[in-house]
Model the fold of this input.
Amino acid sequence: MERTMEMYLEEKKQFIDNALKKYMQALQVPPALKQSMTYSVEAGGKRLRPILLLASYEAFQKDITVALSSAAALEMIHTYSLIHDDLPAMDDDDYRRGKLTNHKAFSEATAVLAGDALLTYSFEIISKDDKLTAVQKAELIALLAESSGPKGMVAGQILDMEAEDKAITLQELERVHTLKTGELLRYAVYAGAYLGGATEKQLHALQLFASYLGLIFQVQDDILDVTGDELKLGKPVGSDALNLKSTYPKLLGIDGAIEKKEQYLLKAKESLQAAGIENSNLMDLAIYFGQRDY
Amino acid sequence: MERTMEMYLEEKKQFIDNALKKYMQALQVPPALKQSMTYSVEAGGKRLRPILLLASYEAFQKDITVALSSAAALEMIHTYSLIHDDLPAMDDDDYRRGKLTNHKAFSEATAVLAGDALLTYSFEIISKDDKLTAVQKAELIALLAESSGPKGMVAGQILDMEAEDKAITLQELERVHTLKTGELLRYAVYAGAYLGGATEKQLHALQLFASYLGLIFQVQDDILDVTGDELKLGKPVGSDALNLKSTYPKLLGIDGAIEKKEQYLLKAKESLQAAGIENSNLMDLAIYFGQRDY
Done:
Protein backbone atom coordinates (compact mmCIF):
# COMPACT_ATOMS: atom_id res chain seq x y z
CA MET A 1 0.00 0.00 0.00
CA GLU A 2 1.28 3.44 -0.86
CA ARG A 3 2.41 5.59 2.00
CA THR A 4 -0.04 8.41 1.14
CA MET A 5 -3.02 6.05 1.09
CA GLU A 6 -1.98 4.63 4.43
CA MET A 7 -1.88 8.13 5.90
CA TYR A 8 -5.21 9.00 4.32
CA LEU A 9 -6.85 5.93 5.85
CA GLU A 10 -5.34 6.62 9.25
CA GLU A 11 -6.40 10.26 9.23
CA LYS A 12 -9.96 9.46 8.25
CA LYS A 13 -10.15 6.60 10.72
CA GLN A 14 -9.37 9.11 13.46
CA PHE A 15 -12.29 11.29 12.39
CA ILE A 16 -14.62 8.31 12.45
CA ASP A 17 -13.34 6.98 15.76
CA ASN A 18 -13.76 10.39 17.36
CA ALA A 19 -17.26 10.80 15.98
CA LEU A 20 -18.23 7.33 17.21
CA LYS A 21 -16.76 8.01 20.63
CA LYS A 22 -18.72 11.26 20.84
CA TYR A 23 -21.97 9.56 19.91
CA MET A 24 -21.42 6.73 22.37
CA GLN A 25 -20.52 9.09 25.20
CA ALA A 26 -23.67 11.11 24.58
CA LEU A 27 -25.80 8.02 25.23
CA GLN A 28 -27.43 8.09 28.65
CA VAL A 29 -28.58 4.49 28.91
CA PRO A 30 -28.34 1.57 31.37
CA PRO A 31 -24.64 0.73 31.98
CA ALA A 32 -24.94 -2.91 30.87
CA LEU A 33 -26.37 -1.82 27.52
CA LYS A 34 -23.87 0.96 26.97
CA GLN A 35 -20.96 -1.30 27.85
CA SER A 36 -22.04 -3.94 25.38
CA MET A 37 -22.74 -1.44 22.56
CA THR A 38 -19.45 0.38 23.16
CA TYR A 39 -17.47 -2.86 23.33
CA SER A 40 -18.38 -3.73 19.76
CA VAL A 41 -18.27 -0.20 18.36
CA GLU A 42 -14.76 0.21 19.74
CA ALA A 43 -13.61 -3.33 18.91
CA GLY A 44 -11.46 -1.84 16.20
CA GLY A 45 -12.08 -2.52 12.59
CA LYS A 46 -10.66 -0.52 9.74
CA ARG A 47 -13.72 1.75 9.40
CA LEU A 48 -13.56 1.19 5.64
CA ARG A 49 -17.25 1.83 5.06
CA PRO A 50 -17.43 5.24 6.72
CA ILE A 51 -14.05 6.20 5.23
CA LEU A 52 -15.50 5.38 1.82
CA LEU A 53 -18.42 7.68 2.58
CA LEU A 54 -16.05 10.51 3.50
CA ALA A 55 -13.93 9.90 0.39
CA SER A 56 -17.02 10.04 -1.78
CA TYR A 57 -18.08 13.28 -0.12
CA GLU A 58 -14.59 14.72 -0.58
CA ALA A 59 -14.74 14.09 -4.31
CA PHE A 60 -17.20 17.02 -4.29
CA GLN A 61 -16.78 19.06 -1.09
CA LYS A 62 -14.22 19.79 1.60
CA ASP A 63 -15.82 20.20 5.05
CA ILE A 64 -16.43 16.60 6.12
CA THR A 65 -18.21 17.50 9.37
CA VAL A 66 -21.46 17.50 7.37
CA ALA A 67 -20.90 13.84 6.49
CA LEU A 68 -19.85 12.55 9.90
CA SER A 69 -23.28 11.52 11.21
CA SER A 70 -24.06 9.50 8.07
CA ALA A 71 -20.63 7.90 8.33
CA ALA A 72 -20.96 7.06 12.03
CA ALA A 73 -24.47 5.71 11.47
CA LEU A 74 -23.11 3.44 8.75
CA GLU A 75 -20.43 2.04 11.05
CA MET A 76 -23.05 1.44 13.75
CA ILE A 77 -25.20 -0.49 11.29
CA HIS A 78 -22.17 -2.51 10.21
CA THR A 79 -21.33 -3.21 13.86
CA TYR A 80 -24.88 -4.31 14.71
CA SER A 81 -24.84 -6.70 11.75
CA LEU A 82 -21.59 -8.26 13.00
CA ILE A 83 -22.98 -8.69 16.53
CA HIS A 84 -26.10 -10.45 15.24
CA ASP A 85 -24.12 -12.44 12.63
CA ASP A 86 -21.85 -13.84 15.33
CA LEU A 87 -24.75 -15.14 17.47
CA PRO A 88 -24.90 -18.91 18.11
CA ALA A 89 -28.08 -19.14 16.01
CA MET A 90 -26.27 -17.47 13.10
CA ASP A 91 -22.52 -17.99 12.42
CA ASP A 92 -21.76 -18.99 16.02
CA ASP A 93 -18.40 -17.23 16.19
CA ASP A 94 -16.50 -16.85 19.47
CA TYR A 95 -13.93 -14.38 18.20
CA ARG A 96 -13.90 -11.36 15.94
CA ARG A 97 -10.86 -9.21 15.27
CA GLY A 98 -9.02 -11.24 17.90
CA LYS A 99 -11.49 -10.32 20.64
CA LEU A 100 -14.39 -12.25 22.13
CA THR A 101 -17.58 -11.70 20.20
CA ASN A 102 -20.26 -9.64 21.93
CA HIS A 103 -22.38 -12.56 23.12
CA LYS A 104 -19.27 -14.29 24.49
CA ALA A 105 -18.09 -11.17 26.33
CA PHE A 106 -21.59 -10.43 27.68
CA SER A 107 -24.57 -12.69 27.05
CA GLU A 108 -26.66 -13.73 24.09
CA ALA A 109 -29.61 -11.64 25.26
CA THR A 110 -27.41 -8.59 25.74
CA ALA A 111 -25.90 -9.08 22.28
CA VAL A 112 -29.33 -9.23 20.64
CA LEU A 113 -30.32 -6.00 22.42
CA ALA A 114 -27.00 -4.23 21.79
CA GLY A 115 -27.44 -4.95 18.09
CA ASP A 116 -31.03 -3.70 18.11
CA ALA A 117 -29.91 -0.59 20.00
CA LEU A 118 -27.09 0.26 17.57
CA LEU A 119 -29.38 -0.23 14.59
CA THR A 120 -31.98 2.11 16.06
CA TYR A 121 -29.45 4.66 17.30
CA SER A 122 -27.99 4.97 13.81
CA PHE A 123 -31.27 6.42 12.55
CA GLU A 124 -31.54 8.66 15.57
CA ILE A 125 -28.17 10.33 15.04
CA ILE A 126 -28.95 11.20 11.43
CA SER A 127 -32.42 12.47 12.30
CA LYS A 128 -30.95 14.79 14.95
CA ASP A 129 -27.85 16.13 13.19
CA ASP A 130 -28.43 19.87 13.00
CA LYS A 131 -25.82 20.21 10.26
CA LEU A 132 -28.28 18.51 7.91
CA THR A 133 -31.47 19.90 6.37
CA ALA A 134 -34.70 17.97 6.92
CA VAL A 135 -34.64 16.97 3.26
CA GLN A 136 -31.12 15.57 3.62
CA LYS A 137 -32.09 13.68 6.78
CA ALA A 138 -35.10 12.06 5.13
CA GLU A 139 -33.08 11.13 2.03
CA LEU A 140 -30.16 9.68 4.01
CA ILE A 141 -32.45 7.68 6.28
CA ALA A 142 -34.35 6.28 3.31
CA LEU A 143 -31.04 5.29 1.70
CA LEU A 144 -29.64 3.74 4.86
CA ALA A 145 -32.82 1.81 5.63
CA GLU A 146 -33.01 0.49 2.08
CA SER A 147 -29.38 -0.57 1.99
CA SER A 148 -29.32 -2.19 5.39
CA GLY A 149 -32.86 -3.56 5.67
CA PRO A 150 -34.95 -6.34 4.13
CA LYS A 151 -34.23 -5.20 0.55
CA GLY A 152 -30.51 -4.87 1.21
CA MET A 153 -28.12 -6.33 3.72
CA VAL A 154 -30.68 -8.41 5.61
CA ALA A 155 -31.84 -9.96 2.33
CA GLY A 156 -28.20 -10.85 1.64
CA GLN A 157 -27.90 -12.50 5.04
CA ILE A 158 -30.96 -14.68 4.47
CA LEU A 159 -29.73 -15.68 1.01
CA ASP A 160 -26.26 -16.37 2.40
CA MET A 161 -27.78 -18.69 5.01
CA GLU A 162 -29.79 -20.48 2.36
CA ALA A 163 -26.69 -20.90 0.20
CA GLU A 164 -24.70 -22.63 2.91
CA ASP A 165 -23.92 -26.28 2.30
CA LYS A 166 -25.26 -25.85 -1.21
CA ALA A 167 -23.61 -25.39 -4.60
CA ILE A 168 -24.62 -22.07 -6.16
CA THR A 169 -23.68 -20.42 -9.45
CA LEU A 170 -21.35 -17.45 -9.82
CA GLN A 171 -24.38 -15.32 -10.64
CA GLU A 172 -26.16 -16.37 -7.45
CA LEU A 173 -22.98 -15.79 -5.48
CA GLU A 174 -22.72 -12.25 -6.87
CA ARG A 175 -26.33 -11.54 -5.89
CA VAL A 176 -25.67 -12.64 -2.30
CA HIS A 177 -22.59 -10.45 -2.02
CA THR A 178 -24.15 -7.48 -3.76
CA LEU A 179 -26.85 -7.52 -1.10
CA LYS A 180 -24.88 -8.62 1.94
CA THR A 181 -21.76 -6.52 1.45
CA GLY A 182 -22.38 -4.29 -1.54
CA GLU A 183 -25.50 -2.52 -0.32
CA LEU A 184 -23.77 -0.79 2.60
CA LEU A 185 -20.91 0.21 0.30
CA ARG A 186 -23.49 1.59 -2.12
CA TYR A 187 -24.96 3.64 0.71
CA ALA A 188 -21.45 4.87 1.60
CA VAL A 189 -20.64 6.04 -1.90
CA TYR A 190 -24.10 7.38 -2.66
CA ALA A 191 -24.66 9.17 0.65
CA GLY A 192 -21.26 10.86 0.49
CA ALA A 193 -21.77 12.04 -3.07
CA TYR A 194 -25.37 13.09 -2.39
CA LEU A 195 -24.30 15.26 0.55
CA GLY A 196 -21.44 16.61 -1.54
CA GLY A 197 -23.90 17.78 -4.18
CA ALA A 198 -23.27 15.28 -6.99
CA THR A 199 -25.52 15.46 -10.06
CA GLU A 200 -28.04 12.72 -10.92
CA LYS A 201 -25.71 11.47 -13.65
CA GLN A 202 -22.77 11.30 -11.27
CA LEU A 203 -24.87 9.52 -8.64
CA HIS A 204 -25.89 6.98 -11.23
CA ALA A 205 -22.30 6.26 -12.27
CA LEU A 206 -21.23 6.08 -8.64
CA GLN A 207 -23.85 3.43 -7.88
CA LEU A 208 -22.15 1.27 -10.48
CA PHE A 209 -18.76 2.02 -8.95
CA ALA A 210 -20.09 0.97 -5.56
CA SER A 211 -21.45 -2.30 -6.84
CA TYR A 212 -18.06 -3.25 -8.32
CA LEU A 213 -16.39 -2.17 -5.12
CA GLY A 214 -18.62 -4.58 -3.21
CA LEU A 215 -17.64 -7.43 -5.48
CA ILE A 216 -13.93 -6.55 -5.22
CA PHE A 217 -14.26 -6.51 -1.45
CA GLN A 218 -15.87 -9.93 -1.42
CA VAL A 219 -13.47 -11.63 -3.83
CA GLN A 220 -10.61 -10.43 -1.66
CA ASP A 221 -12.41 -11.68 1.45
CA ASP A 222 -12.76 -15.12 -0.13
CA ILE A 223 -9.13 -15.11 -1.31
CA LEU A 224 -7.94 -14.19 2.20
CA ASP A 225 -9.90 -17.08 3.65
CA VAL A 226 -7.67 -19.37 1.56
CA THR A 227 -4.32 -17.58 1.50
CA GLY A 228 -4.58 -15.14 4.41
CA ASP A 229 -2.57 -14.89 7.62
CA GLU A 230 -4.62 -15.81 10.69
CA LEU A 231 -2.66 -13.43 12.89
CA LYS A 232 -3.24 -10.45 10.61
CA LEU A 233 -6.87 -11.35 9.98
CA GLY A 234 -7.60 -11.95 13.66
CA LYS A 235 -9.78 -14.92 12.73
CA PRO A 236 -9.21 -18.50 11.57
CA VAL A 237 -8.76 -19.08 7.83
CA GLY A 238 -10.27 -21.99 5.94
CA SER A 239 -13.69 -21.60 7.59
CA ASP A 240 -15.41 -21.19 4.21
CA ALA A 241 -14.10 -24.56 3.09
CA LEU A 242 -15.25 -26.15 6.34
CA ASN A 243 -18.71 -24.64 5.90
CA LEU A 244 -18.94 -25.93 2.33
CA LYS A 245 -19.71 -22.33 1.41
CA SER A 246 -19.64 -21.20 -2.20
CA THR A 247 -16.75 -18.79 -2.74
CA TYR A 248 -14.93 -17.28 -5.69
CA PRO A 249 -11.83 -19.47 -5.25
CA LYS A 250 -14.03 -22.55 -5.05
CA LEU A 251 -15.95 -21.66 -8.20
CA LEU A 252 -13.04 -20.21 -10.21
CA GLY A 253 -9.84 -21.37 -8.53
CA ILE A 254 -7.44 -18.88 -6.89
CA ASP A 255 -6.08 -17.61 -10.21
CA GLY A 256 -9.57 -17.26 -11.60
CA ALA A 257 -10.65 -15.32 -8.52
CA ILE A 258 -7.69 -12.94 -8.86
CA GLU A 259 -8.49 -12.42 -12.54
CA LYS A 260 -12.12 -11.72 -11.68
CA LYS A 261 -10.96 -9.10 -9.18
CA GLU A 262 -8.90 -7.38 -11.88
CA GLN A 263 -11.93 -7.25 -14.15
CA TYR A 264 -14.02 -5.65 -11.40
CA LEU A 265 -11.27 -3.09 -10.75
CA LEU A 266 -11.30 -2.10 -14.42
CA LYS A 267 -15.09 -1.69 -14.33
CA ALA A 268 -14.82 0.37 -11.15
CA LYS A 269 -12.34 2.70 -12.84
CA GLU A 270 -14.63 3.12 -15.85
CA SER A 271 -17.53 4.11 -13.57
CA LEU A 272 -15.44 6.79 -11.88
CA GLN A 273 -14.44 8.12 -15.29
CA ALA A 274 -18.13 8.26 -16.25
CA ALA A 275 -18.74 10.30 -13.09
CA GLY A 276 -15.82 12.57 -13.97
CA ILE A 277 -14.09 12.03 -10.62
CA GLU A 278 -11.34 9.54 -11.47
CA ASN A 279 -8.84 11.75 -9.65
CA SER A 280 -10.53 11.41 -6.26
CA ASN A 281 -9.36 9.02 -3.55
CA LEU A 282 -12.11 6.61 -4.53
CA MET A 283 -10.01 4.66 -7.06
CA ASP A 284 -7.18 4.29 -4.58
CA LEU A 285 -9.68 2.97 -2.09
CA ALA A 286 -10.95 0.44 -4.62
CA ILE A 287 -7.38 -0.73 -5.23
CA TYR A 288 -6.85 -0.92 -1.49
CA PHE A 289 -10.03 -2.97 -1.07
CA GLY A 290 -8.61 -5.44 -3.57
CA GLN A 291 -5.17 -5.62 -1.98
CA ARG A 292 -5.83 -5.60 1.75
CA ASP A 293 -4.27 -8.49 3.59
CA TYR A 294 -6.30 -8.26 6.78
CA MET B 1 -66.51 -2.33 27.20
CA GLU B 2 -69.02 0.01 25.66
CA ARG B 3 -70.37 -0.90 22.29
CA THR B 4 -69.18 2.35 20.67
CA MET B 5 -65.60 1.82 21.88
CA GLU B 6 -65.66 -1.72 20.56
CA MET B 7 -66.73 -0.45 17.14
CA TYR B 8 -64.12 2.31 17.23
CA LEU B 9 -61.34 -0.17 17.97
CA GLU B 10 -62.53 -2.53 15.25
CA GLU B 11 -62.77 0.22 12.66
CA LYS B 12 -59.31 1.56 13.41
CA LYS B 13 -57.83 -1.93 13.54
CA GLN B 14 -59.03 -2.39 9.96
CA PHE B 15 -57.19 0.73 8.86
CA ILE B 16 -53.99 -0.47 10.52
CA ASP B 17 -54.31 -4.02 9.20
CA ASN B 18 -54.84 -2.72 5.67
CA ALA B 19 -51.89 -0.35 5.91
CA LEU B 20 -49.65 -3.13 7.24
CA LYS B 21 -50.80 -5.48 4.49
CA LYS B 22 -50.03 -2.85 1.87
CA TYR B 23 -46.54 -2.24 3.25
CA MET B 24 -45.77 -5.94 3.47
CA GLN B 25 -47.03 -6.61 -0.05
CA ALA B 26 -44.84 -3.81 -1.40
CA LEU B 27 -41.72 -5.54 -0.08
CA GLN B 28 -39.75 -7.25 -2.81
CA VAL B 29 -37.45 -9.40 -0.72
CA PRO B 30 -36.35 -13.08 -0.51
CA PRO B 31 -39.43 -15.26 0.13
CA ALA B 32 -38.08 -16.81 3.36
CA LEU B 33 -37.58 -13.35 4.85
CA LYS B 34 -40.92 -12.01 3.70
CA GLN B 35 -42.74 -15.07 5.00
CA SER B 36 -41.20 -14.75 8.42
CA MET B 37 -41.77 -10.98 8.67
CA THR B 38 -45.36 -11.29 7.45
CA TYR B 39 -46.08 -14.20 9.80
CA SER B 40 -45.45 -12.05 12.85
CA VAL B 41 -46.94 -8.83 11.50
CA GLU B 42 -50.15 -10.68 10.68
CA ALA B 43 -50.16 -12.82 13.84
CA GLY B 44 -53.03 -10.77 15.12
CA GLY B 45 -52.70 -8.53 18.08
CA LYS B 46 -55.10 -5.78 18.98
CA ARG B 47 -53.05 -3.03 17.31
CA LEU B 48 -53.54 -0.91 20.43
CA ARG B 49 -50.39 1.15 19.90
CA PRO B 50 -51.13 2.32 16.36
CA ILE B 51 -54.82 2.82 17.27
CA LEU B 52 -53.66 5.08 20.07
CA LEU B 53 -51.61 7.06 17.57
CA LEU B 54 -54.64 7.49 15.31
CA ALA B 55 -56.85 8.48 18.27
CA SER B 56 -54.31 11.08 19.32
CA TYR B 57 -54.18 12.44 15.78
CA GLU B 58 -57.99 12.53 15.63
CA ALA B 59 -58.14 14.69 18.73
CA PHE B 60 -56.84 17.42 16.39
CA GLN B 61 -57.46 16.45 12.76
CA LYS B 62 -59.72 14.26 10.65
CA ASP B 63 -57.90 12.74 7.67
CA ILE B 64 -55.97 9.86 9.24
CA THR B 65 -54.18 8.83 6.03
CA VAL B 66 -51.42 11.29 7.04
CA ALA B 67 -50.83 9.29 10.22
CA LEU B 68 -50.92 5.78 8.77
CA SER B 69 -47.19 5.38 8.05
CA SER B 70 -46.21 6.43 11.59
CA ALA B 71 -48.83 4.06 12.96
CA ALA B 72 -47.74 1.12 10.79
CA ALA B 73 -44.09 1.79 11.64
CA LEU B 74 -44.96 1.68 15.32
CA GLU B 75 -46.68 -1.69 14.97
CA MET B 76 -43.66 -3.03 13.06
CA ILE B 77 -41.35 -1.91 15.86
CA HIS B 78 -43.64 -3.52 18.41
CA THR B 79 -43.68 -6.73 16.36
CA TYR B 80 -39.89 -6.83 16.00
CA SER B 81 -39.54 -6.41 19.77
CA LEU B 82 -41.86 -9.37 20.38
CA ILE B 83 -39.94 -11.56 17.92
CA HIS B 84 -36.62 -10.81 19.62
CA ASP B 85 -38.14 -11.00 23.13
CA ASP B 86 -39.42 -14.51 22.43
CA LEU B 87 -35.99 -15.83 21.35
CA PRO B 88 -34.49 -18.68 23.42
CA ALA B 89 -31.75 -16.35 24.67
CA MET B 90 -34.40 -13.90 25.89
CA ASP B 91 -37.80 -15.03 27.26
CA ASP B 92 -37.67 -18.38 25.43
CA ASP B 93 -41.37 -18.48 24.57
CA ASP B 94 -42.82 -21.08 22.19
CA TYR B 95 -46.23 -19.50 21.79
CA ARG B 96 -47.58 -15.99 21.39
CA ARG B 97 -51.23 -15.13 20.84
CA GLY B 98 -51.90 -18.86 20.57
CA LYS B 99 -49.53 -19.28 17.61
CA LEU B 100 -45.97 -20.58 17.46
CA THR B 101 -43.44 -17.83 18.04
CA ASN B 102 -41.40 -16.75 15.03
CA HIS B 103 -38.27 -18.76 15.85
CA LYS B 104 -40.41 -21.87 16.43
CA ALA B 105 -42.31 -21.47 13.17
CA PHE B 106 -39.12 -20.71 11.21
CA SER B 107 -35.67 -20.77 12.79
CA GLU B 108 -33.78 -18.73 15.34
CA ALA B 109 -31.56 -17.16 12.69
CA THR B 110 -34.57 -16.24 10.58
CA ALA B 111 -36.29 -14.73 13.62
CA VAL B 112 -33.27 -12.56 14.42
CA LEU B 113 -33.19 -11.32 10.83
CA ALA B 114 -36.97 -10.85 10.53
CA GLY B 115 -36.82 -8.66 13.65
CA ASP B 116 -33.90 -6.65 12.29
CA ALA B 117 -35.72 -6.27 8.98
CA LEU B 118 -38.97 -5.02 10.54
CA LEU B 119 -37.08 -2.56 12.72
CA THR B 120 -35.25 -1.14 9.71
CA TYR B 121 -38.29 -1.17 7.43
CA SER B 122 -40.24 0.90 9.95
CA PHE B 123 -37.85 3.82 9.43
CA GLU B 124 -37.93 3.33 5.68
CA ILE B 125 -41.70 3.64 5.41
CA ILE B 126 -41.77 6.92 7.33
CA SER B 127 -38.84 8.32 5.37
CA LYS B 128 -40.62 7.56 2.09
CA ASP B 129 -44.19 8.57 2.87
CA ASP B 130 -44.94 11.35 0.40
CA LYS B 131 -47.87 12.56 2.50
CA LEU B 132 -45.32 13.87 5.02
CA THR B 133 -43.04 16.89 4.74
CA ALA B 134 -39.31 16.34 5.21
CA VAL B 135 -39.53 18.15 8.56
CA GLN B 136 -42.30 15.80 9.71
CA LYS B 137 -40.33 12.75 8.57
CA ALA B 138 -37.20 13.81 10.45
CA GLU B 139 -39.19 14.61 13.60
CA LEU B 140 -41.15 11.35 13.55
CA ILE B 141 -38.03 9.28 12.95
CA ALA B 142 -36.19 11.01 15.79
CA LEU B 143 -39.17 10.33 18.08
CA LEU B 144 -39.52 6.71 17.03
CA ALA B 145 -35.80 5.99 17.34
CA GLU B 146 -35.65 7.59 20.78
CA SER B 147 -38.70 5.74 22.06
CA SER B 148 -37.75 2.35 20.70
CA GLY B 149 -33.95 2.46 20.94
CA PRO B 150 -31.28 2.40 23.66
CA LYS B 151 -32.82 5.31 25.57
CA GLY B 152 -36.30 3.83 25.39
CA MET B 153 -37.71 0.35 24.88
CA VAL B 154 -34.35 -1.42 24.58
CA ALA B 155 -33.20 0.18 27.84
CA GLY B 156 -36.38 -1.17 29.44
CA GLN B 157 -35.65 -4.65 28.13
CA ILE B 158 -32.14 -4.66 29.59
CA LEU B 159 -33.43 -3.39 32.95
CA ASP B 160 -36.24 -5.95 32.88
CA MET B 161 -33.69 -8.73 32.36
CA GLU B 162 -31.56 -7.42 35.21
CA ALA B 163 -34.61 -7.28 37.48
CA GLU B 164 -35.51 -10.92 36.97
CA ASP B 165 -35.09 -13.15 40.00
CA LYS B 166 -34.46 -10.04 42.07
CA ALA B 167 -36.60 -7.99 44.44
CA ILE B 168 -37.01 -4.41 43.19
CA THR B 169 -38.89 -1.42 44.57
CA LEU B 170 -42.09 -0.01 43.16
CA GLN B 171 -40.10 2.96 41.85
CA GLU B 172 -37.65 0.71 40.03
CA LEU B 173 -40.56 -1.32 38.67
CA GLU B 174 -42.17 1.85 37.30
CA ARG B 175 -38.93 2.86 35.61
CA VAL B 176 -38.67 -0.51 33.86
CA HIS B 177 -42.25 -0.30 32.60
CA THR B 178 -42.04 3.35 31.63
CA LEU B 179 -39.15 2.42 29.35
CA LYS B 180 -40.19 -1.03 28.18
CA THR B 181 -43.87 -0.37 27.54
CA GLY B 182 -44.44 3.33 28.10
CA GLU B 183 -41.98 4.71 25.59
CA LEU B 184 -43.77 3.29 22.55
CA LEU B 185 -47.09 4.55 23.93
CA ARG B 186 -45.47 7.95 24.39
CA TYR B 187 -44.41 7.87 20.74
CA ALA B 188 -47.97 6.89 19.77
CA VAL B 189 -49.59 9.76 21.63
CA TYR B 190 -46.92 12.32 20.77
CA ALA B 191 -46.55 11.43 17.08
CA GLY B 192 -50.31 11.51 16.53
CA ALA B 193 -50.72 14.87 18.26
CA TYR B 194 -47.63 16.31 16.54
CA LEU B 195 -48.95 15.37 13.10
CA GLY B 196 -52.36 16.70 14.10
CA GLY B 197 -50.82 20.09 14.87
CA ALA B 198 -50.96 20.14 18.69
CA THR B 199 -49.35 23.10 20.48
CA GLU B 200 -46.21 22.73 22.61
CA LYS B 201 -48.32 22.96 25.76
CA GLN B 202 -50.68 20.26 24.55
CA LEU B 203 -47.76 18.01 23.56
CA HIS B 204 -46.30 18.45 27.01
CA ALA B 205 -49.55 17.47 28.75
CA LEU B 206 -49.98 14.54 26.39
CA GLN B 207 -46.55 13.18 27.27
CA LEU B 208 -47.78 12.94 30.86
CA PHE B 209 -50.98 11.27 29.70
CA ALA B 210 -48.92 8.73 27.76
CA SER B 211 -46.72 7.91 30.73
CA TYR B 212 -49.76 7.15 32.91
CA LEU B 213 -51.24 5.14 30.09
CA GLY B 214 -48.10 3.02 30.03
CA LEU B 215 -48.38 2.36 33.74
CA ILE B 216 -52.09 1.52 33.47
CA PHE B 217 -51.27 -0.89 30.69
CA GLN B 218 -48.62 -2.60 32.75
CA VAL B 219 -50.61 -2.89 36.00
CA GLN B 220 -53.38 -4.53 34.01
CA ASP B 221 -50.86 -6.87 32.36
CA ASP B 222 -49.60 -7.91 35.79
CA ILE B 223 -53.14 -8.34 37.14
CA LEU B 224 -54.08 -10.51 34.15
CA ASP B 225 -51.07 -12.71 34.80
CA VAL B 226 -52.67 -13.54 38.16
CA THR B 227 -56.41 -13.46 37.45
CA GLY B 228 -56.60 -13.75 33.65
CA ASP B 229 -58.12 -16.44 31.47
CA GLU B 230 -55.47 -18.45 29.59
CA LEU B 231 -57.78 -19.05 26.65
CA LYS B 232 -58.57 -15.37 26.18
CA LEU B 233 -54.97 -14.32 26.73
CA GLY B 234 -53.59 -16.96 24.37
CA LYS B 235 -50.68 -17.52 26.78
CA PRO B 236 -50.16 -19.26 30.12
CA VAL B 237 -50.90 -17.24 33.27
CA GLY B 238 -48.77 -17.34 36.40
CA SER B 239 -45.48 -17.09 34.47
CA ASP B 240 -44.47 -13.95 36.39
CA ALA B 241 -44.74 -15.82 39.70
CA LEU B 242 -42.68 -18.67 38.26
CA ASN B 243 -40.02 -16.22 37.08
CA LEU B 244 -39.85 -14.57 40.50
CA LYS B 245 -40.48 -11.35 38.59
CA SER B 246 -41.41 -8.18 40.44
CA THR B 247 -44.99 -7.21 39.60
CA TYR B 248 -47.61 -4.82 40.97
CA PRO B 249 -49.71 -7.60 42.59
CA LYS B 250 -46.59 -9.01 44.20
CA LEU B 251 -45.53 -5.63 45.60
CA LEU B 252 -49.00 -4.30 46.47
CA GLY B 253 -51.36 -7.27 46.50
CA ILE B 254 -54.19 -7.58 43.96
CA ASP B 255 -56.35 -4.95 45.67
CA GLY B 256 -53.40 -2.59 45.97
CA ALA B 257 -52.63 -3.05 42.27
CA ILE B 258 -56.24 -2.27 41.32
CA GLU B 259 -56.17 0.84 43.49
CA LYS B 260 -52.89 1.93 41.88
CA LYS B 261 -54.53 1.55 38.49
CA GLU B 262 -57.41 3.82 39.55
CA GLN B 263 -54.93 6.46 40.68
CA TYR B 264 -53.15 6.33 37.33
CA LEU B 265 -56.49 6.65 35.51
CA LEU B 266 -57.29 9.79 37.46
CA LYS B 267 -53.89 11.26 36.61
CA ALA B 268 -54.39 10.37 32.96
CA LYS B 269 -57.71 12.20 32.95
CA GLU B 270 -56.13 15.28 34.51
CA SER B 271 -53.46 15.36 31.80
CA LEU B 272 -56.08 15.26 29.06
CA GLN B 273 -57.92 18.10 30.76
CA ALA B 274 -54.67 20.08 30.84
CA ALA B 275 -54.33 19.49 27.11
CA GLY B 276 -57.94 20.57 26.61
CA ILE B 277 -58.91 17.39 24.79
CA GLU B 278 -60.76 15.43 27.45
CA ASN B 279 -63.58 14.79 24.99
CA SER B 280 -61.42 12.83 22.54
CA ASN B 281 -61.34 9.04 22.35
CA LEU B 282 -58.11 9.05 24.33
CA MET B 283 -59.76 8.78 27.75
CA ASP B 284 -61.95 5.90 26.61
CA LEU B 285 -58.81 4.20 25.35
CA ALA B 286 -57.12 4.68 28.72
CA ILE B 287 -60.13 3.12 30.44
CA TYR B 288 -60.06 0.29 27.95
CA PHE B 289 -56.34 -0.26 28.58
CA GLY B 290 -57.16 -0.66 32.25
CA GLN B 291 -60.11 -3.01 31.72
CA ARG B 292 -58.99 -5.30 28.91
CA ASP B 293 -59.24 -8.97 29.77
CA TYR B 294 -56.97 -10.32 27.02
About this structure: The two ends of chain B are 12 Å apart (CA to CA). Chain B has a mean pLDDT of 92.
